[in-house]
Amino acid sequence: GRVDGLEARVAELEANQFSTTTKLQGEVVFGIADAFGGEEVGADNTQTVFQYRARLAFVSSFTGRDQLWTRLDAANAGALVDLDGDTIQGATTYQTTDSGNDVGIGWLAYYFPIGDNVQVYLPAAFPLWQDFVPTVSPYFEGFTGANNAVSSWAESSPIYKLGLSNGGGIGFNVNITDELMLSAGYFGGDSFNPTEKNGLFNGDYSTLGQLTFTTGDLQVAATFHHGYYNNFRDEGDALFDTLVGTVRARNPFFDEATFTNSYGLEASYQISNSIAVHGYGGYTYAQAAGQNARADIWYYGLGLAFPDLGLPGNLLGIIAGAEPYVGGYRGGDIGGIASDELSDDTAVHLETFYRFQLSDNISITPAVIWITAPDGDKDNEDVVYGVIRTTFTF
Question: Which of 26, 208, 237, 374 is the most exposed place for a label (fewest CB within 10 A)?
Answer without folding.
Answer: 26
